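Question:
When you can, review this sequence-structure pair and walk me through the tokens.
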Amino acid sequence: MNIVCLDLEGVLVPEIWIAFSEATGIPELRRTTRDEPDYDKLMKFRIGILKEHGLGLKEIQDTIATIDPLPGAKEFLGELRTITQVVILSDTFEQFAKPLMEKLGWPAIFCNTLEVAPDGEITGYKMRCEKSKLTTVKALQSCGFETIAAGDSFNDLGMIEASKAGFLFRTTEAIKKDHPQYPAFEDYDEFLKGIKAVL
């Protein structure tokens, strides 16, 4: 049995931290997993910037409320779910994901959790498991699933490499150049055709 494992940000919805960077006018918050392969380093950097500017969970959630899925994403996901099982594997946080999942028609998502103080300050984060995307793909395979994985960033490469088929979607030129073995798509129709071809 096949299961498609999709990244969330950059693949189905805009990057939350980039949207928040634009909303707050803080350019340092534009940094994402496309730019920084070390997720722990990236999150500690982000939390430091939030503290410096006195920003917390509420301000980020207010921005998330204004974010819509990428054009065509909901339709792509809806069609894909009629032909195979799909799970979203994301390094985002449950406190961010819920309104986005509602706009996408409530797909299954596995993500992480923020540690938040009573006053709303983000003090840390808890990963669901180590190397969460790769670990989850291996766990699904141990349950008898054949995985097909797709994403756009450094933190997606492990699950892509471990799967029976992998794709890049709207990724950077640098990642495409370093990983030419994976088909890279820019639009959902071609992406869907690519996935159907390996099912």
In short: Residues 75 and 104 are 9 Å apart (CA to CA). The beta strands are 2-6, 85-93, 109-116, 122-126, 146-151, 165-169, 184-185.
